[in-house]
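#struct-queue
[09:14] JT: dropping the first one here, sequence first, then the structure tokens:
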Amino acid sequence: MLTRRTFMSTAGALAATPAIVGPASAQAAITLRSTDIHPDGYPTIDAVKFMGQLLEQRTQGRIKINVFHSAQLGQERDTIDQTRFGVIDMNRINMAPFNNLIASTNVPSLPFIFRSVAHMRKVMDGAIGDSILNDFTPHNLVGLAFYDSGSRSFYNSKRPINTPADMRGMKIRVQQSDMFVALVQALGANATPMPFGEVYTSLQTGVIDGAENNWPSYESTRHFEVSKFYSLTEHSLSPEVLVMSKRSFDKFNAADQALIRAAAKESVVKMRELWDAREKASEAKVRAGGAQINTVEKQPFIDAMKPVYDRFVTDAKMKDLVARIQATT
């Protein structure tokens, strides 16, 4: 829920933001504001820019996208309500901050739910992914597409993690999601939720011992400088989601809405091409920077996740989604 302060801030921002009046027409030039916490040049940033290029070409410059990178408009959790209210038009955001708002987003966020990157992409590109995107609508958001978030693994400043026992007592930063808190607790560590932008300093000062993320984020934030041990648990392949404010989307006519949806889907192909290249480059930089990388036997970590599934897969719809994902070949 919005606090009075958040609501007043949002209302003020709305008043200061040029509004789209009525359905977009051939005469109305619209520049959509899109937000992302990642730095300029990151695959998600460039994918949304590519989407903007497609829209600009297909509407003769009538619809454009201005991408605000590097958390210029706020950290992920801070921007959700702004997007729901139409202060921000588009938002590329991790699935985790939506877990407590939209129940079905917990399913692709489950640890070890996907067997591989190819499995995740096939699931999220199909009917299961479309069903989850539709669940954003009641929350004043339009789910447009899923982007890759890579394989998330644990890193820390203390020691290599080979078994869950190696994590016992560690203070591990997690996203602000009950599921990620439960995941880390199930492995015997102490979960510390905090915004992504605070992680480097917290690692540097010892407020936390470690965190978990993918190769590009571990590299681009330079977390590898202050947290040298990167253990390839690959516990999460949860995708990220590109959403649009329903208030902004509804101001376009049906033809423009179709163009926006199509351009978003096409941007997924570009994002994955950029992502695959970026993962390889980031891994090379991390290794060259002196990080110590180790692989793990995953089964003990998988076995430890039963209480997480028991807690978060609670209703018939979610159980059906899990079964359908596991049955996808």
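[09:21] JT: and here's the second one, same format:
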Amino acid sequence: MLMKVAKGDVVRLHYIGKVKETGEIFDTTYEEVAKEAGIYSEKGIYGPVPIAIGAGHVLKGLDDQLEGLEVGKKYIIEVPPEKAFGRRDPKLIKTFTLGQFRRQGIMPFPGLEVEIETESGKKLKGRVLSVSSGRVRVDFNHPLAGKTIVYEVEIVEKIEDPIEKVKALIELRLPMVDLSKVQIEVGEKDVKVDFSDVEIDKNTLILGEIILESDLKFIGYEQVEFKPTIDELLKPPEVKVEEEIEEEVKEQEIKEEKEEKVETEETKEETEEIAETVNEKTEEVKAKEGVKEEAKE
């Protein structure tokens, strides 16, 4: 039975991205292909990548053409420059003096990748085009700008189980997270994700929750809850410590109140027992005195 994918479906996708003009491979989910192409990274994560169709998890020109494809079949998809990495913009080629680089301890040469900080503090990545007559021309266009891109793609799996869909999106956004430590609850239109037992940098988790909320709403959930919440993660450490102390004080007060109540009840019971014993002794004494009076008569 053929299974087609639609917008909003969560799938696992294998692909190889090439530049049409040269055949150069610039990106892939296959580890062996990456090694053969010389683009392998030890920090890279290989294997079919989880994405939601139409959510912008891959290049727009590719994403637009995934709808309607069949699971398990391989396709060749061509993406024009304007829907890939954009057309080359001559305005993004800037000229600097050689001295500007030397003052930063950089000896520029054609092909060198550089990062320039603008007056506003924004950092731009570029590539040196030429060095001549004390002038350095730097291209800030994307390296693949103006190129037609060809993708070889295969949708390996369409994920149906709601819990597995959520896990797949967490894997996409927070690949370093141990999914076995994440608690997930899903309803028809709501989802709760608990990261309390996960060891992860606070700032990474904040960003992860922000983009995960967007992803989960894209696939149909109207209400998304995280634990800890973003507000809790944003609280300064000293505020958290104060709240923890207040909570401990409250718990101690409640414990003491309970103990006092128990002690009061125990004291009341002991008093009642003593009073009952005294009454019994008094009755015995009265009875004995009554017997003595009868004997005298």
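[09:30] RK: nice, looked through the second one.
[09:31] RK: The chain has a mean pLDDT of 88.
[09:31] JT: good to know. The CA atoms of residues 50 and 173 lie 10 Å apart.
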